[in-house]
Specification:
The chain has 19 helices and 36 strands. By secondary structure, it is an alpha/beta fold.
Length: 788
């Protein structure tokens, strides 16, 4: 329908209007003078007619010099478009489980194997597809379904405007070959559902759609627009959103994110393995947790499923003597849940050693200071440690009472070498004979572990110039401390070095968040023995917050290095017992137990491999990560090569994908033995990083996981959110069995479209015809008046 008001004349020429008026008046005067001075006999009426005609012609010419334009508003009505928005993000590559008849029937309807209005309640025994198409494949089948003819029916309601969306929006022409369907590749790394819909609501009023047809699984991981705000805007503009929800009704996934297992397990010692997993799209049922060691189930538990949250639960077991055998065994942690007639399962495997012998430790102390008192009780309760205690100034009767006490330091070399770990507290170097000092040095050189805990009276002040000082990882001055210092000491909170953060020694909790909280809240210390520098190839684990050593580096409070084949740790503080405040032995005993395992286990097991750790503790897809290594030569000296090649094995690689790849460790400058390599983290899965170090191969098992809300993370269709959005906007939510009603539910809408139309009069034929007509009329009148 076309209608409009009378046109308005607008002059667009550069010819001044005032001059045009003057010329018209002059033209009228000239025409009148011309005809009224004519000598022929003419009546006044005829003279006026001829003068008027001549004046009109001249006036018309002057008017056209002003370039007149006739402007008028023309209004029409047209149908609003129907916008089809199809999700092109990576989540559309998922293959949903379809365990039941309804979900299989939906695939059959999409593929035109069943009539569009068949429904999903089919009789038992009906032949249905058994494969699991991707969500994108299902969408293509729907729009290519000739019996459904969804696009053709929507065209009857208005022009169809198809788009693909994800992290970007792409429009296509609406042609019979449906180029947008062919271009549906499900490759966009993010989904911006609400932002994309909101963009169409911001159109000019004349371009607003009659309806939005949204085809998606509803997983929005990039929009800033809130769902309720979008729904309110669409309802206000009377633009219903009709939504085809893509995905199976039984969609769910189960992922074991972590299962912390120590590298070494001890016979008859309780092993606790914390599981961390997430179930998504599973509303009910039980998750079965299982631990197997060497193929034998050693622990299991069933817990109620929790949908959409990380859940932590622990399993415990006690390795038996039969489990201790030569070499390593595989421990497998698995989570499993049944969903319909399908089983979802995930697992994590790791090679461990099972030790049948405790760490045999000798702890020598001069006086029973607080550190010793609490450590003695903790070690006596630790079933993985076989402790012997020697208190030089202790009660002689107690020291001579037998195990776990010792009256004197071993006077035979072989007796000292029967221990795995030697812990020496604040002991005067002169307590040991020159021969015993050399034995201690040889004990470390041959692979024994040594922990030295500094004190105010003797150690390490009296050790300078003796073989005992040679094995320390630090250089120290000889300092004497007053026994009763009246000055109030200043509390300080130590800080973990980069290596300390990665070291298992300082892992005070299995949960990374709880561990971080401990180091933020842990009580501080009031005393430390000063250190002047680290020895070559030594590393600091714990630093003083403000005291410095050479090159303005933080002063080490706990340092470590290999001396010969043995590992030595030096503690410049004696107040870790303060960590017991309000926590008893929770952190204190764990810390000293981890010190014993780290320093004493290599001697116990007869194996000393390198140390590997993933930076940040977690490998995430798409974010290259770093792995740090402390590597050694076969003589157990820090490796000094600039580069070391390692191999990464993908443990769960499918048959058609590469299983092995090589990574290169680069030496960390000025830190002998320290290396760093970059892991690509470009595939989700389980991996084992292997690198030669010492006489063994250091192995790091890790897993590359998907970041939160990643497009490829398994997850169900957001049916509740999509249904709510459709209802709030006046639209409807559809599954495959409902799509035959979609085009009927879309209502045609029209919009009044007003367009300003301009006509250039100086180029219009009828204007010039009028001028010529006036000339002709004047000529005819002149002829009838017998004028030449």
């Amino acid at each position: 329908m076309v209608y409009g008001a009378l046109p308005e004349i607008v002059l667009r020429g550069s010819f001044p209007l005032w001059l045009a008026i003057i010329l018209m008046v002059v033209a009228a005067g000239v025409a009148g003078a011309f005809y009224f001075t004519e000598s022929m006999k003419l009546g006044v009426g005829r003279r006026l007619v001829l003068a008027g005609m001549r004046a009109l012609v001249l006036a018309a010419i002057v008017f056209l010099l002003c370039k007149p334009v006739a402007v008028r508003d023309v209004s029409t009505q047209k149908s609003r478009p129907v916008v089809i928005l199809s999700d092109n993000s990576q989540s559309m590559t998922q293959k949903d489980p379809r365990p039941g008849v309804p979900d299989k029937a939906r695939v059959a309807i999409a593929r035109d194997l069943l009539a569009p209005d068949t429904g999903v309640n089919l009789p038992a025994g009906a032949t249905l597809p058994t494969d699991r198409p991707t969500r994108a494949e299902l969408v293509k089948s729907v729009f290519e379904n000739k019996r459904l003819d969804l696009v053709g029916k929507l065209r009857q309601k208005g022009p169809v405007q198809p788009y693909l969306f994800g992290s970007r929006l792409r429009g296509f022409a609406d042609t019979d070959d449906k180029p947008w369907v062919k271009s549906l590749s499900a490759e966009d790394p993010k989904t911006l559902i609400t932002d994309t819909l909101s963009e169409f609501l911001q159109r000019d009023d004349n371009e607003l759609p009659a309806a939005l047809v949204l085809v998606t699984d509803g997983r929005d991981n990039g929009s800033g627009t809130q769902w309720d705000d979008l729904a309110a805007d669409a309802a206000r503009l009377n633009i219903p959103i009709h939504i085809y929800g893509v995905g199976g009704s039984a969609v769910g996934f189960l992922q074991l994110k972590d299962a912390v297992v120590q590298d070494t397990l001890f016979v008859e010692d309780t092993v606790t393995v914390p599981f961390r997993w997430r179930a998504q799209g599973i509303k009910e049922g039980d998750v079965e947790l299982t631990l197997t060691l060497g193929g034998k189930v050693v622990a299991s538990k069933r817990v109620a499923v929790v949908d959409g949250q990380d859940v932590t639960e622990s399993l415990s077991f006690t390795p038996a003597k039969d489990d201790a055998s030569a070499g390593k065994k595989e421990i497998v942690a698995s989570v499993k849940v049944n969903q319909g007639n399908e089983t979802l399962e995930d697992r994590f495997a790791k090679s461990v050693r099972v030790a049948d012998r405790k760490v045999k430790m000798l702890y020598v102390e001069s006086n029973p200071r607080w550190e010793f008192k609490f450590m003695m009780q903790a070690f006596k309760r630790d079933r993985r440690v076989d402790p012997t205690f020697l208190i030089i100034n202790g009660d002689r009767k107690a020291m001579e009472s037998g195990p776990p006490f010792l009256a004197n330091f071993p006077d035979q070399r072989k007796d000292l070498f029967s221990y795995d770990l030697l812990v020496i507290g604040d002991v005067d170097a002169n307590y040991f004979t020159p021969e015993q000092r050399n034995w201690i040095k040889d004990f470390v050189t041959e692979g024994g572990g040594l922990v030295v805990i500094a004190g105010r009276l003797h150690a390490p002040a009296t050790w300078l110039g003796t073989p005992l000082a040679d094995v320390l990882p630090v250089e120290v001055p000889s300092v004497k401390f007053a026994i009763d210092d009246p000055r109030r000491p200043t509390e300080f909170k130590p800080t973990l070095s980069d290596l300390g953060r990665r070291s298992a020694i300082f892992s005070m909790a299995d949960d990374p968040g709880e561990n971080q909280q401990f180091w933020a809240d842990a009580p501080g210390f009031y005393w430390h023995y000063p250190v002047t520098k680290l020895r070559p190839a030594a590393v600091s684990l714990l630093d003083h917050p403000w005291d410095k050593v050479a090159e303005n580096k933080p002063m080490p409070l706990m340092a470590m290095h290999y001396y010969g084949k043995g590992l030595v740790m030096f503690s410049a503080v004696e107040e870790t017992w303060r960590w017991r405040f309000n926590e008893a032995d929770k952190f204190f005993a764990r810390y000293w137990g981890q010190v014993v395992y780290a320093i004493g286990l290599p001697h116990t097991l007869g194996s000393k491999s390198g140390q590997l750790a993933v930076a940040g503790g977690e490998a995430v897809l798409g974010k290259p990560g770093q792995v740090y290594g402390r590597l050694f030569t076969p003589e157990y000296r820090p490796m000094t090569r600039e580069r070391v090649t390692a191999q990464v094995e993908r443990l769960d690689a499918p048959p058609n994908e590469e299983k092995f790849r090589t990574v290169v460790f680069e030496a960390v400058p000025n830190q002998p033995g320290e290396y760093v390599a970059t892991l690509p983290n470009d595939r989700v899965g389980r991996y084992a990083l292997k690198v030669e170090s010492g006489e063994d191969v250091a192995v790091l098992d890790y897993r590359v996981t998907l970041p939160p809300e990643h497009e490829l993370a398994p997850g169900s269709m957001n049916e509740d959110g999509l249904r709510k959005l459709a209802e709030q906007t006046g639209g409807r939510f559809y599954r495959e069995e409902d799509l035959h009603r979609l085009a009927t539910d879309v209502k045609q809408q029209t919009v009044t479209f007003t367009q300003r139309k301009e006509t250039l009069l100086w180029t219009s034929w009828w204007v010039w015809a009028l001028v010529v007509g006036l000339f002709t009329a004047e000529w005819v009148v002149r002829k009838f008046s017998n004028m030449s």
